[in-house]
Design brief:
The two termini are 70 Å apart. This protein has helices spanning 2-8, 15-35, 39-46, 65-134, 137-140, 145-187, 189-209, 213-236, 238-243, 247-300, 305-346, 407-413, 437-441, 458-463, 471-480, 484-489, 507-520, 537-550, 586-592, 595-604, and strands at 367-376, 382-392, 396-400, 422-427, 430-431, 444-447, 525-529, 555-559, 571-576, 579-584. The relative contact order is 0.08. 63% of the residues lie in helices and 10% in strands. Helix 4 packs antiparallel against helix 6 and helix 7 (189-209) packs antiparallel against helix 10 (247-300). With 605 residues, the protein is α/β, with parallel strands linked by helices.
Length: 605
């Protein structure tokens, strides 16, 4: 029951639309139920039965029968005044009007539901997107992008479908069943008892068959996430796949996931698809029983033929809602499985939070200090051990060491992409956990080893959502990054769309745009993670010259693999397996003949 309430939570913002849907469904049910006894006069005239004189209704009598008496009395008056043929025309006109309003309100119920369906999809996707943006990088290091995309697409649509089925089932179908059963009880309580027993049996059988549907749906959606992950990796790495002739390898992986998804869905679909034919079969079995029992009532004169036929029509009107119940049950189970997957994301703990009384920070004036800092991605295996490091404002500091030594992790701690396990990181003497996160991150300009660009114009990729920059400032940043000339050579200059991840540009051009983006913000601290690694020799020299000018009077952390590029920095920090081995200038560390000296010698060889 709690899971159902969880699904219904999504419609809270659309109560007025749901209310109009409920009213429309109620009116549709009223006209549907009224349409059943309205067929009696038509059938009576069709069977050419003798029309007996009917007295006026006694309004003092309790119950529903006086309304039937009123209807039959006016029908008798209509025949008396206009004859059978004209009375038949009137009856047909009334039937058409009743069915018109029935279907009008049926359409209106769907009309008012459309904003709910689309709104739910929009709202859940916005919540997921906001959650994705707020979660720390550690979350993405343990989850596949394809699976997250699947939750944003497939799972959200499953929830939307389930909620729609739930609202329709909870509101319309019970009203329809109650209305039809009321009429059936009025006609024959004993026959109605048989119907109720058979419906209960039907529901029990369907419940047993669908007991494992939710589990199967959850498994299928998980496999779908893995399949989307393979697809995402294929599209992202298509150049490498083709270069290494790995198409068959990737195809085998995709086909395996695709077959797993298919094989998991087969029993799910079979159980779901069994519900409708099973309900119909059981319904026909009940009809056969009703025909046998009901014929005795007709033969004995207890019930007129036309009344018995409307009883069958009322029962048939109960079958469809009952079938909808069974179908909705399956859809809701799938929706609950999808909802669980989405709730797992929304409930994910975001431990990087801003304090309520967080301190503002708009400048950087003194320096950075790591005090006994340790960190692990999995709370078990530490990647940084007791880091003690001070970097004064205006210092150019290079971080060197073998791959996996902790260089990038150390710089990622500064803007709080991760939160440390032990120790403290201080910015101008203030613990960064006590600072406003947005203001803290605005102090940094970052250039990663892999150029991160977006399917947008060159101008928008440099500005990247920031406001207050003029066109001249953007062009100046591009000039400093040695990018202005090649930008002007593109089709539309700064308005050129560069494709997915900048696919229309060369590697060096992409990197220069990311450098321009970092420079544009004029941050007091720059983090350069092998910023020139993708450039050719000519472009590298030009950018290195530009960066040298930009780095003056600015604090810079350079992650370097090519040690020849950091000879002139103010300090070099040598990391090995997450520990600081040496700190000093190039000359000092070469003279010490320690870890740095060995690294330089290996590169020289």
């Amino acid at each position: 029951m709690g899971a159902l309430k969880g699904l219904l939570k999504y419609i809270e913002g659309y109560k007025h639309y749901v209310g109009l849907n409920v009213i429309s469904n109620l009116l549709m049910v009223i006209f549907s139920v009224v349409s059943i006894p309205s067929l009696i006069p038509f059938l009576r005239l069709l069977f050419n039965q003798e029309i007996k004189e009917v007295p006026p209704p006694d309004w003092t009598m309790p119950g529903f029968s006086k309304y039937i008496d009123y209807f039959e009395y006016h029908f008798f008056i209509l025949i008396q005044n206009h004859g059978r043929e004209k009375a038949l025309l009137y009856v047909c006109a009334i039937i058409i009007m009743i069915f018109f309003f029935k279907n009008l309100f049926r359409f209106l119920s769907l009309y008012f539901m459309a904003p709910v369906r689309t709104g739910i999809v929009r709202d859940v996707r916005e919540k997921l997107y906001d959650k994705f943006n707020s979660l720390p990088l550690s979350f993405y290091s343990k989850n596949k992008k394809g699976d997250l995309i699947s939750r944003m697409t497939t799972d959200v649509l499953e929830i939307e479908s389930s909620i729609l089925n739930m609202v329709e089932t909870i509101v319309r179908e019970p009203l329809m069943i109650i209305g039809c059963l009321t009429y059936m009880i009025y006609v024959s309580p004993s026959l109605t008892l048989v119907v109720i027993l058979m419906v209960l049996i039907t529901g029990g059988v369907i419940g047993v068959i669908g007991s494992r549907l939710k589990k199967g749906s959850a498994q299928a959606q998980g496999i779908m996430g893995n399949m989307v992950a393979v697809l995402e990796e294929t599209l992202s790495g298509i150049r490498i796949i083709k270069g290494f002739n790995a198409e068959n390898y990737m195809r085998t992986t995709f086909v395996e996931k695709n077959n797993q998804y298919r094989n998991t869905l087969i029993p799910v679909f079979r159980r779901r698809d069994l519900s409708s034919p099973l309900s119909e079969f059981l319904g026909i079995a009940v009809v056969a029983i009703l025909l046998i029992i009901g014929s005795r009532y007709v033969f004995s004169g207890e019930t007129s033929p036309e009344t018995f036929l409307t009883f069958l029509f009322a029962f048939y009107s109960v079958i469809n809602p009952a079938k909808s119940f069974s179908k909705a049950y399956y859809n809701i189970q799938k929706g609950l499985a999808a909802s669980d997957r989405i709730k797992n994301i929304l409930a994910e703990d975001n431990h990087i939070v801003e304090l309520e009384n967080a301190l503002p920070i708009s400048s950087f004036e003194k320096g950075i200090e790591f005090k006994n800092v340790s960190y692990s991605y999995d709370n078990e295996n530490k990647v940084l051990h007791n880091i003690q490091l001070k970097i004064q404002e205006g210092t150019v500091c290079a971080l060197v060491g073998a791959s996996g030594s902790g260089k990038t992790t150390l710089t990622d701690l500064l803007p709080r992409f991760y939160d440390i396990d032990e120790g403290a990181v201080l910015m101008d003497g203030k613990n960064i956990k006590e600072l406003k996160i947005r203001e803290l991150r605005s102090l940094f300009g970052m250039v990663s080893q892999e150029p991160i660009l977006f399917h947008d114009s060159i101008y928008n990729n440099i500005v990247f959502g920031r406001e207050g920059f003029t066109k001249e400032q953007v062009e100046n940043a591009a000039r400093i990054a040695n990018a202005h000339e090649f930008i002007l050579e593109t089709e539309k200059g700064y308005d050129t769309i560069i494709g997915d991840r900048g696919s229309k540009l060369s590697g060096g051009q992409r990197q220069r745009l990311t450098i321009a983006r970092a420079i544009l913000g004029d941050p007091p601290i720059l983090i350069l993670d092998e910023a020139t690694s993708s450039l050719d020799s000519k472009s590298e020299k030009a950018v290195q010259k530009a960066l040298k000018k930009v780095m003056e009077n600015r604090t810079v952390l350079v992650i370097a693999h090519r040690l020849s590029t950091i000879k002139d920095v103010d300090m070099i920090v040598v990391l090995e397996e997450g520990r600081i081995q040496e700190i000093g200038t190039h000359k000092e560390l070469i003279h010490a003949e320690g870890a740095y000296h060995n690294l330089v010698r290996m590169q020289t060889i």
